[in-house]
Amino acid sequence: MDKTHSVFLIEEECEGCTNCVKNCPTKAIRVHQGQASIKEEYCIDCAACIRNCEYHAKEALTTDLAEALSGENNIALIPPSFYAQLPPEYNLKKIKQKLLSLGFAGAVNVSMGATIYSAWLKNILSKKESAEPLISSACPVVVRYIRLLYPELLDLVVNYDSPLEITVKMINNELKNKFTDKDFDFYFITPCPAKHTAVYYPPGKKASLLSGAIGVDDIYNPILKADLATDSTDIQEYLNNIEQGFPFVSALAWGKSGGEEENLNRSNGSRIIKVDGLERIKMVLEDLENDNLKGVDYLEMTACPGGCLGGVLNIINPYQGIINLENAISKEYEEAGDNDADRQATAANIIETFEQPEIMPDENKAGSFETALARWQALEAEKEKLPGLDCAACGAPDCGTLAEDIVDGFAERVDCIFMLRQEVEMLANRMSELVGTLPPAMGRDKKEDADGEK
Amino acid sequence: MQQEMLINSKVREGDFKRGGEVSSKLKETLKQLDLDSKTIRKASIVAYELEMNIIIHSQGGRLKVKISPEEVLIIAEDSGPGIEDIEKALTPGFSTAGNEIRELGFGAGMGLCNVNKFSDKMDIESDSEGTVVRAGINF
User: Fold this and answer.
1) Which of A219, A440, B50, B121 could, after both became Cys, cross-link B76 (CB 3.0–4.6 A)?
2) What pTM was computed for the model?
3) How far does Cα A326 stand from its chain's mean position?
């Protein structure tokens, strides 16, 4: 299956209703011939359509667990939000034992990368001179959304790998040094479709170091049912050592909206705003575009309401998730003791060794001014004709989008039920007119004509 | 020179609820025109500041936007008290806005200053009848 996007349609389940069309934040979906179709170039894998489809016709493509386990030396990456999905007795140690029992050679916690990201950001924010805020690059949906609809703000997106990629990069280097004869495959346990897509098409990067992303919904039951591994592996022991050198506990908060803020505020007076949910993100970006958001240093943005806890593949509702995650964090703190804070320096050292990726800008669309203006004029004229009710019966989310589709040749004016009615009315009028018309040879009342008024 | 009127909208005094509506429409239009993202950003800021200026300081006016192959031209026309001292009005932080407007988070004295900063040319005509600000952003 094509991996450009994780979100896909199960054709036989689609009823052709327009719920997904109306709720898509990038207007990427149309219903034609009673079937939804996704315009690939606009889809950012935000999963709004998965949430909104009553018929469960939208699904997320993720890596099959069996496929992930088929190779050797597979490492599972555990996101902080995953802790919150499991019963309270599941601490990090237990999750790892379960993953080993399922067949993974090792498992690590992604909050290590979040620790590095936070430490690096503190540094950047303390040196920041621009009045404009920086935007977190942790959520791939947000990065894609900005790239697609607010490209002028792309410069503000933090030019740094996501915590997930940082974690993989770090442990991959370490593992390769230790186990020189082995190659490793890394699989993320993903709460959302976008992280699966980011394995194949990471936003702003050439390639990801991951081999796949397994959906939380697919691995949940196997984990609950798996036995606890009694023996550890060399790889796992080595990974535990790396992890122990890290202040990873506080960064577990990254699983929820506000987690970045908590981690950054600890030692820094930066002014940070957390924004969750694409609707609110849109509001903030609009204001940012107008230079109408002052005195903010950093925007923590997560496309899902509640942050990663709100990921569409998760099991537990995001509010219960907050409680579960906070409980899990307290427990891990008890285990880690005070070491967590002491280890910050280690993270700072590792940052130095990191090469920073470039976020690649989109190519500018080439086109002449005249062509663009002519298209705009045609668009305005088309909008003028359409009723402006945004009923979506045409299969496009609103009249403006239908107008664009008409101008670009993807739809016809009579796709609009009101325009169709108007056409029928015109046709009916013409028909009744024609009915009253007689052929020229018959059309003259001779007598009347003789008495005529000529 | 080919020139097209993209927007010609009324802006009411004191209408904070609709504040930013015209500049949002402009943004959408410029994106449809496939303009360079930096130009769109500058035009958005300029249009927003001018729109808010009409709302805060005037007795109502119009915001017009024209486009040509060379530039986006944003024209704010209002009737109102006019700007007493244009040079002063361009000083960062200088504001004649009253307290209730400042309480809303506006009137920080950056409006015209921002217009000047983000446009490539700007002229202001103002008398006791009203003000016309023209700001051009080159491609």
Assistant:
1) B50
2) 0.88
3) 24
Secondary structure of A37-70 in the HEC alphabet?
EECHHHCCCCCHHHHHCCCCCEEECCCCHHHHHH
A contacts of B7 (beta carbons < 8 Å): none
Tokens of A359: 């976020």
Sign of CA dihedral B10, B12, B16, B17: negative
Backbone torsion region of residue A409, taken as left when φ is above 0, otherwise alpha when ψ lies between -120 and 50, otherwise beta? left
Distance CA B136, CA A373 (A): 18
Residue range A246-261: average pLDDT?
88
Please indicate whether, in this complex, the C-beta atoms of A151 and B2 are within 8 angstroms of each other. no
Question: Are residues A290 and B32, on separate chains, in Cβ contact within 8 Å?
Answer: no
Please tell me the predicted confidence (pLDDT) of residue A454: 46
Among the residue ranges A311-315, A403-407, B54-58, the one predicted with the least confidence is B54-58
A437 Cβ under 8 Å from any chain B Cβ? no
Cβ within 8 Å of residue B50, ≥6 positions away = B63, B74, B76, B111, B115, B133, B135
ipTM greater than 0.85: no
Query: Residues A356, B23: contact at Cβ < 8 Å?
Result: no
In this prediction, the residues of chain B whose per-residue pLDDT falls under 50 are none
The reported pLDDT for the residue numbered A246 is 76
Q: Chain B contacts of A149, Cβ < 8 Å?
A: 31
Distance from CA of B41 to the nearest CA of A (A): 6
Q: Is A344 helix (H, G, I), strand (E, B) or coil?
A: helix
